[in-house]
Amino acid sequence: MTIGAPFASAWTKTYSPRSVTLVGGLLFAAANIAASFGQQLWHFMLTQGLLLGCTTCLTYIPAVTVAPGWFDGRRGLAMGVILSGTGLGGVVWAPLLRYLNTTIGFRNTLRATGVASFILISASALVLKWEPSAVLQYAREAPAARRRGLNLPRANWTIVRSRAFIAHACGAILQAAAYYTPVYFFSSYARTLGYSDTAGANFIALSNACNFAGKIGLGYLADRYGRLNALVLTTLLSALATLTLWLPSSAPLGLEARQGLFVTYTCLYGVTASAYVSLFPTALAEQFGIQNFASINGLLYMIRGIGTLVGTPVAGALIRGQSATAMGTVVNFEKTILMVGVLLVGATGAVGWARAENGVQRGWRWKA
């Protein structure tokens, strides 16, 4: 979804966020409607995989690129509210789509989803614009950018070569490689603990609900106690939750104990890991300055996209590669759980490094 972020970010500066988002909304509808006529697997790979991924990038990146510039003192809370929509959408859309699939069929559901998404995305695009100082800056840069056509924007190499940028890049790719894995496998893992298919799917809804609340609550706290501090803390807590709650839930304990550990993990991971997503842009703006944010966020989101592209397939391969059970213990997820935990520990170290670099550059202070 975000591998194309440098393009989307550059086009947002050159052609306006409204234009890019409207194009994304149109293609979003086209991808879903085209998929409704699919007859072979490659039809869905092309429409739901490639095209829908590209259009999601065109609608997501302009929003996270433009929004931080409009806020300062409450930037963490603002981004938490904005990005909490991903959690709320998961809570609302999942049962709605299940209902539509059973009543009107999956093909008509895809068509209805395409139309509804176009309306919602277009409505949001109409209010999406740069804050006034950015308008002047990008108006001066637009003619040269248009002459470069589809070329990537010129990165601020002074920042890209800095230790702080490298630290954030390491944290971004490690956290992204781990982030989606638990969510993708919540349902299948829940079934190994004795839950039904429906109950297993409800764990995803529970995670999304915690995602929604966590982004807003932790965004508020980040404004009070420091956005970089909050980024380090939430990444650390998500790593600890994985290693102290999810991993023990696969141990030879009583079934109720394992279920309790997993429910607790689902909630805590939903709150902490998802908060990284909303705190990430605020931390970048804090560390590199809002005036430089739009020139580097596309590259960092592309790096996150690479992490996502690699992490989840590797996790799936680890699950398929170890399918035995012994003494009632679920062992086929252990390697995957350990992988997620290790990646999040590495991400914690990287964002801690970024926090330290901020202290070295600006002087040590509690709130950062």
Keywords for this entry:
368 residues, mainly alpha, two-stranded antiparallel ribbon, globular
Protein model, in words:
The chain is mostly helical and 368 residues long. It has 13 helices and two strands, in the order ααααααααααααββα. The protein has helices at 5-15, 17-35, 41-66, 75-104, 106-125, 132-147, 157-160, 163-192, 197-225, 227-246, 255-288, 290-320, 334-362; strands spanning 325-326, 329-330. A two-stranded antiparallel ribbon has the order 1-2. α1 crosses α2 and α11 (255-288) runs antiparallel to α12 (290-320). It is globular, with a radius of gyration of 21 Å. Mean pLDDT is 87; it is low at 321-331.
Short précis:
The chain has 13 helices and two strands; from the N terminus they run H-H-H-H-H-H-H-H-H-H-H-H-E-E-H. With 368 residues, the chain is an all-alpha fold.
How is this fold's topology laid out?
Blueprint: H1 5-15, H2 17-35, H3 41-66, H4 75-104, H5 106-125, H6 132-147, H7 157-160, H8 163-192, H9 197-225, H10 227-246, H11 255-288, H12 290-320, E1 325-326, E2 329-330, H13 334-362
Antiparallel strand pairs: 1-2
Hey, roughly how much beta strand do the residues contain? under 5%
> Radius of gyration, rounded?
21 Å
Helix amount: over 70%
Low-confidence runs: 321-331
| Mean pLDDT score | 87
Give the helices and strands as they follow along the chain.
HHHHHHHHHHHHEEH
- Reading side by side through the largest sheet, how are the strands ordered? 1-2
